[in-house]
Design brief:
By secondary structure, this protein is α+β, with helices and mostly antiparallel strands. It has 6 helices and 8 strands, in the order ααββαβββββαβαα. Helix 1 (10-18) packs across helix 2. The protein is globular and about 50 Å long. It catalyses: N-terminal N-formyl-L-methionyl-[peptide] + H2O = N-terminal L-methionyl-[peptide] + formate.
C-alpha cells in the first residue's frame, strides 16, 4: 500500500526534504524512485523553491563528492539534474578520457542523442551505487537538448568525459542505472580499483578480467 507521502504534491515533498538544510541524503540502488523514471519539469516548483532545490543538489554533489547528481537520487522524481567537473586528474588521464573541466550546469528536461557511431569505454561509478565501479561503453559524442533552470533552451554537443556525465545523469531521469549498461565482468570494488585499475584506460582490466572493449 502506498503511503500518504507518495501522493503528496512534489513541492511539499521538496520543502520537507530541504527543511533540515545541508547536503541531502542520497538514495541507494534498490529504492524504487531510481527505477520509476521522472516527470518532465513544468513548474511543479515555484521559482524560489526550484532555486533552493538546485542549490541543495549542488551542495550534495560537492559533499559526496561527485560530478553529477539527478533529482531521483535524492528521492525527487523530477527531470532535473546538475553537473560540474573540475577534472582534477593527471594530464595523461585527462588526455586518454577526454576529461576537461565543466562549469556548474543545471539540466532541465534533458534528452540526448548520439553524434556519430564512435563509442568509448571507461570505468564509471555512481553515488547511488557506492563502493563499486564498472566499465561502461557510451557514445563518445552526444547532442543534448533541454533547458536550464531559467527556462533557456539548451542545445549543445558534448564529447569525451562531459558526454559520459550527461549520458549518466540523463539515464537516471529515465530510471536507468549505469549498471544496466555496464560490462559486468568488469565490476570492481573501490578497493580493487585503487589497487589494480587506476590506468588511464581499462585495457589492462579487460585483459585480466576477460571482457572485450568496443
Amino acid at each position: 500500500m502506498a503511503s500518504p507521502r507518495d501522493h503528496a504534491p512534489l513541492a511539499e515533498r521538496v520543502e520537507e526534504l530541504l527543511g533540515p538544510g545541508g547536503p541531502l541524503p542520497i538514495v541507494a540502488a534498490g529504492d524504487p524512485v531510481l527505477r520509476r523514471g521522472t516527470e518532465p519539469y513544468d513548474g511543479q516548483l515555484a521559482p524560489a523553491l526550484l532555486a533552493r532545490f538546485v542549490e541543495a543538489l549542488r551542495v550534495t554533489m560537492h559533499a559526496a563528492p561527485g560530478v553529477g547528481l539527478a533529482a531521483p537520487q535524492v528521492g525527487v522524481p523530477l527531470r532535473i539534474a546538475v553537473i560540474e567537473d573540475p577534472a582534477p586528474v593527471p594530464a595523461e588521464v585527462a588526455a586518454a578520457r577526454g576529461r576537461v573541466p565543466q562549469p556548474f550546469r543545471v539540466l532541465v528536461n534533458p534528452a540526448y542523442e548520439p553524434v556519430g557511431t564512435a563509442r568509448a569505454a571507461f570505468f564509471e561509478g555512481c553515488l547511488s551505487v557506492p563502493g563499486w565501479q564498472a566499465v561502461v561503453a557510451r557514445h563518445a559524442e552526444v547532442r543534448l537538448r533541454g533547458q536550464d533552470e531559467n527556462g533557456r533552451a539548451l542545445d549543445e554537443v558534448f564529447a569525451g568525459w562531459p558526454a559520459r556525465i550527461v549520458q549518466h545523469e540523463t539515464d537516471h531521469l529515465d530510471g536507468m542505472l549505469y549498471l544496466d549498461r555496464a560490462e559486468l565482468r568488469s565490476l570492481s570494488s573501490t578497493e580493487a580499483m585503487a589497487e589494480r585499475w587506476t590506468q588511464p584506460t581499462p585495457a589492462t582490466a579487460a585483459q585480466a578480467l576477460g571482457f572485450t572493449l568496443p
